[in-house]
């Protein structure tokens, strides 16, 4: 049986504008194609903060000045970001595989992820999105009940909750595609956050941390490996200090110790470690790799990146 892997793509895989994304996904596609050539079944998830911010701004600013346009809630903007990013990724990967003589369907599953309405994150939003606003615009957002943070010298930005992923609604569809040996892009941008209300799923004004959704997806499809592709080749302890040290192969116990000691950024590296540790601890034989896009091939052979086993 083929080994299964979930690959979480960070900002660098996608760029921040439409033209940047077109270029970035072609590079990313090479790393994914390498994994297919190594014999893995691959499910991909990805970042979306710049894209969902751009979509949210576009959808909600236009409506202010034009009649007959209604604003789009964050959950709808998340769905749009999954579609737009998935579209570029699907085609980039399909083309790279065809260039290597491999035909494989690549599909994007619009994925909803159930979150807990009482998640602490709803009381302390942390995910910063969208364009910089003036003080007056920020005040208007606050009046509407939205959270805003000031970035000194730059302006104000919208900030939304980042609740934990609880359950992936379309998990069976993802599994069915993987069982058919196809590539799947799922839980993009952490998934569309939804609240369960009897049979109804109500979109939540939130953005789920994509690394945590990747871990949830990896658990759900019973993956063997979780690969998190980011902007650094290796994770460091004592980052920025004279005794900075790059991490190669470490155990889960070491990873937990470093997490407790506070070596990792709360909103960037820590969620990657949380996802990796939770995933590995669920069953024997699993591992996680955190590295940069160009090091995947070496990383899966244990020759690059930070590997948690
Ligand atoms: N201990 C650490 N070692 C390496 N990078 C770290 C560490 N703590 C925080 N970081 C930061 O995490 C960033 C990668 O996370 P993030 O910005 O969320 O990217 P991505 O979009 O790829 O998930 C790095 O660019 C680095 O600045
Ligand atoms: N959804 C999410 O975590 O996006 P970013 O990685 O872009 O912050």
UniProtKB/TrEMBL annotation:
Any one Pfam family match given in the protein's UniProt record, by short name = AA_kinase
Q: Which InterPro entries match?
A: AceGlu_kinase-like_sf, Asp/Glu/Uridylate_kinase, Carb_kinase
The name under which this protein is listed is Carbamate kinase
User: Among the entry's GO cellular component annotations, what is one?
Assistant: cytosol
Q: Which family does it belong to?
A: Belongs to the carbamate kinase family.
Record's NCBIfam families? PRK12352.1
Tell me a GO biological process for this protein. L-arginine deiminase pathway
Please give the Gene Ontology molecular function terms for this protein.
Answer: carbamate kinase activity
Per the record, the pathway is: Metabolic intermediate metabolism; carbamoyl phosphate degradation; CO(2) and NH(3) from carbamoyl phosphate: step 1/1
List UniProt keywords, sorted A-Z: Kinase, Transferase
Q: Which residues form the Aspartate/glutamate/uridylate kinase domain?
A: 3-290
User: Which CDD domains does UniProt cross-reference here?
Assistant: AAK_CK
Superkingdom: Bacteria
Q: Carries keyword Amino-acid biosynthesis?
A: no
């Amino acid at each position: 049986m083929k080994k299964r892997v979930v690959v979480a793509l960070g900002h660098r895989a996608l760029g921040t504008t439409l033209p940047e994304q077109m270029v970035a996904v072609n590079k990313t596609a090479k790393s994914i194609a390498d994994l297919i050539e190594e014999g893995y079944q691959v499910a991909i998830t990805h970042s979306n903060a710049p894209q969902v911010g751009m979509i949210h701004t576009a959808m909600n600013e236009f409506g202010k000045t034009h009649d007959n346009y209604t604003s789009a809630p964050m959950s709808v903007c998340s769905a749009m970001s999954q579609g737009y990013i998935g579209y570029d990724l699907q085609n980039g990967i399909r083309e790279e595989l065809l260039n290597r003589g491999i035909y494989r369907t690549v599909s994007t599953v619009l994925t909803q992820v159930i979150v807990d309405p009482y998640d602490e994150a709803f009381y302390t939003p942390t995910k910063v999105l969208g364009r910089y606003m003036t003080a007056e615009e920020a005040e208007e957002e606050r009046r509407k009940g939205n959270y805003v943070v000031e970035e000194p010298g730059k302006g104000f930005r919208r900030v939304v909750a980042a609740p934990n992923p609880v359950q992936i609604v379309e998990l069976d569809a993802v599994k069915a595609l993987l069982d058919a040996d196809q590539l799947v892009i799922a839980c993009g941008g952490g998934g569309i956050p939804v609240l369960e209300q009897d049979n109804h799923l109500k979109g939540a004004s939130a953005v789920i941390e994509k690394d945590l959704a990747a871990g949830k997806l990896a658990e759900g499809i019973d993956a063997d490996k979780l690969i998190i592709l980011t902007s650094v080749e290796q994770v460091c302890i004592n980052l920025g200090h004279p005794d900075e040290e790059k991490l190669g192969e470490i155990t889960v116990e070491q990873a937990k110790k470093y997490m407790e000691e506070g070596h990792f950024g709360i909103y960037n590296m820590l969620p990657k470690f949380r996802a990796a540790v939770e995933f590995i601890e669920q069953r024997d034989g699993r591992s996680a790799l955190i590295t940069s896009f160009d090091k995947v091939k070496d990383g899966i052979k244990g020759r690059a990146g930070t590997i948690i086993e």
